[in-house]
Specification:
- This protein is of the alpha/beta class and 356 residues long.
- Strand 3 (104-109), helix 4 (114-121) and strand 4 (125-130) form a beta-alpha-beta unit.
- The chain has a seven-stranded mixed β-sheet with strand order 2-8-7-6-5-3-4, with helices on both faces.
- It is 36% helix and 15% strand.
- It has twelve helices and 13 strands.
- The N and C termini lie far apart (46 Å).
- The structure holds pyridoxal-5'-phosphate (PLP).
- Pyridoxal-5'-phosphate (PLP) binds at residues 32, 86-88, 112, 157, 161, 186, 188, 214, 216, 222, 227.
């Protein structure tokens, strides 16, 4: 076997790259994007604005206009805001600044795979705890681990991907109080949950809370790569040390600014997506399939021979996410709530597979 001139960093040798199959399928219901493209008025305005972007010049390094506009939208100070190329990069900046060798993050499995992968890439120790029966975090167990092991970073995800439930605010509050460092709550799917489920109300009371959000889901802009976080300005200022200069391109800044001007029209699709989520849950239950309650834009369900069902769906043009090989998630599949006709195609395929 030919060998590379230099082996990868030893601590990355056992780390598998992120893999979510991007297969060709008529109905792509596997990556929790919005099925709705951004509104035509947004696209028209964006195309016009792009015409005057000075591509020969570096962009505004501090993206001042965008920070101000997003701060106004989020009703938080620009100094307590951080924006990057998708919430994955936001998380990478967080772990480069606050994780790293000698520091540990506590992650409750099953959850979003990048909550483990990103800290590892940044050289952070990862402590994986398991969720209780209903995929909820058991507060006593969690508080016990935090008190005993003192992880510098506690990672939460609400609604949780892939299970779909939100974390009770009392759990988050208790962990904020127990944690020796920061508690990061990934709210990538919060727009699909009742407003009161968000930890946003805790932000001004807890200087160790960081909320991570994205334009990739409810905002219909996964392709633009825009994510952000809200937190205490005293923490946020450290992030300028780890970002690369000009990390937000002029194209990205323009897209985000235009999107903010159209936020109401973009977010009007949330209700339709939530209706499809509910339809999926109800219809799957009617077929005798076990579903898990979701407040996100997807539904996790459990079914005998999930790998076979996944193949069967794909052969009928429906691509969902297979979690069968994930620890503790035997026979689980996750389907993204999409267009009404996609739900229909998915449910019809499921019913045919179950009838066979
Ligand atoms: C919980 C969670 N956080 C973050 C992301 C990534 O979002 P972004 O596209 O903003 O990097 C995802 C994407 O699936 C996710 O499920």
């Amino acid at each position: 076997m030919p060998r590379p001139a230099l082996e990868v960093r030893p601590d990355l040798a056992g780390v598998a790259p992120y893999l979510s199959p991007q297969l060709v399928a008529a109905h792509r219901m596997n990556t929790n994007e919005s099925p709705y493209p951004p509104p035509p008025a947004l696209v028209a305005e964006l195309l016009m604005e792009l015409g005057s972007v000075a591509l020969n010049r570096y962009p505004d390094r501090d993206a001042t206009g965008l920070f101000e506009a997003l701060a106004a939208h989020a009703e938080w100070s620009p100094e307590g805001l951080w924006i990057a190329n998708g919430s994955n990069e936001v998380l990478m900046h967080l772990f480069l600044a606050f994780g790293g060798p000698g520091r540990t993050v506590l992650v409750f499995e099953p959850t979003y795979a990048l909550h483990t992968l990103i800290p590892k890439i940044a050289g952070t120790g990862v402590m994986n705890a398991t969720r209780a029966e209903s995929w909820r975090i058991d507060l006593d167990t969690a508080a016990g681990i935090v008190a005993e092991r003192r992880p510098e970073i506690v990672m939460l995800c609400s609604p949780n991907n892939p299970s779909g439930g939100t974390e009770p605010l009392d759990t988050v509050r208790a962990l904020l109080e127990e944690a020796p460092g920061i508690v990061v709550v990934d709210e990538a799917y919060a727009e699909f949950a009742p407003r009161d489920d968000s930890v946003r109300a805790l932000l001004s009371e807890h200087s160790n809370l960081i909320i991570v959000k994205t334009f990739s889901k409810a905002w219909s802009l996964a392709g633009a790569r825009i994510g952000y976080l809200l937190g205490d300005p005293l923490l946020i200022r450290a992030l300028t040390r780890v970002r690369l200069p000009y990390h937000l391109s002029a194209l990205t800044q323009t897209a985000a600014l235009v999107a903010l001007r159209h936020s109401e029209a973009i977010l009007s699709s949330v209700e339709r997506i939530v209706a499809e989520r509910e339809r999926i849950s109800v219809e799957l239950q009617a077929m005798g399939v076990k579903t898990f309650p979701s407040r996100a834009n997807f539904v996790l369900f459990q079914i005998d021979d999930a790998p076979g069902v996944w193949e069967g769906l794909l052969s009928k043009g429906v691509l969902v996410r297979n979690y069968s090989d994930h620890e503790g998630m035997r026979n689980c599949l996750r389907v993204t709530a999409g267009l009404p006709e996609e739900t229909t195609a998915f449910l019809r395929a499921m019913s045919e597979i179950l009838d066979d």
